[in-house]
Design a protein that fits this description.
heterodimer, A: alpha+beta, two-stranded antiparallel sheet, about 35% helix, B: alpha+beta, 2 helices, rod-shaped
Amino acid sequence: MISLLTMIVVMMIAFTSNVGQLVTEKIALQNTADFAAYSGAATQAGVLNDIRRHNQNIWQAHKTARQILQMSETTPWPDYAKNKCPVCVPSFTLSCPGGGSTMTNAPAEAARNAVKAVLQFEEPYIKGKNNLMPQLALSAAQSSVSRNYQSAQMTTKGGSMEKADLDQDKIDLDYYAWGIVTFPTYCVFNGQPVGFLQINHQQQNSWFFKKPGASGEVMFAVETRGTPATSFLGSDGGTYLGNYFGDRQELKAYAAALPMAGKVGAIKGGQFSNAKERNSEWQCGSGSCMNNTQTGPFQVDRANVLEGAKIRGGSFEDYRVRYVGIFETAAQFPNGNDLTGSFPSNGVVAH
Amino acid sequence: MLKRLRKSKNILGQSAVEAMLALPVMLLVYLVGAHMWTLTWNAQYVHVKARLDLHQEAFHKPCTTGGDGGFGSGGNLGGGKTKSVSVTTQDAVFLGGRFDAFKGRTMKAEYHIVCR
């Protein structure tokens, strides 16, 4: 009787140990999946914030340029000011060269060139960083897994290896310039060509922003797999008591996280609201936000119009990180068939 | 009636000896069970505690890239390297730590968030 009781108690201890060990391993594996997903998403968020920071340089260059170009509306404009080139002045053609076309203006061109120089540096940097983002996130997640659960394997899921779908627009860099009409209009007083005010129109690339509703968004989802140590009274080959207590099967755990609440750059034409992720676009009222008109410039664009699109220090926030839902199977991941929670099934999240 | 139920002195003696021997054996078995339970509890405790601590430290923070630490509201993970926490606990000591198997041991869990 005592032998029987002892045997039962020993088996109870064995089961307790086995279940405890299995639960502990599962907790460790789930933690590993969670922190791998967090590592990937936090790295993605860091890259997006870096892009955002460099976007700000583009925004600042445009705003500064517009402030300079806006001066062309007020005379005297340094070199070819209205008072130096009045209509019907005989010396007009001498002091205002470039007859028959819009004249160039040294300060204005310098302002435009400053924007070009910034774009020349920032555009390749931002594109390169965006291209590198999937590899950086993967590397962070893999390193996290190897530190947290050395023998675990990791597979990325959903759109984890996609980069941000970025887009640009064109921003007007216009200024008033004096031109002359040589034919057929001549000044009736002296027969000289007639000077006129016109806009020198040029556009440059804007800062980057994420395409509204773009497919291919940034998130990081992982599956981790690990096989716990052999069970109590079990065996590697299942030849001894392992047949009763079972050898360890591979465990799986899932996790997904994504950058949230941030903005790479203001989107033109949108309506700003305080929503963290959606609709937090650039307030523009009516028409185009970036430029005065959709079809062509009829006046010099205001520098302060860009203020609503200020990328850092304005209305938009840096990216942070959050987890997405709870996943028990791979099918529940983005691009799977049965994703739970609010994460859209096609993997699209507005940023 | 009582006479029929009464057992022989030999049998009574055997039961007494078995009971006397069984007591420490059963006590030992229960102690082993309690020790196992404690190990299990503490192992899970350190994993869950480490998870909680690391999540509380991270709390929505992104990695730092490009040398910028200017995140206003949430801060960042700092340094662009690794954020980690380590939790340790001591399990109970049975039998006064007389045997190696029952000596209290340190349970430890450490988790990392890695930035690139």
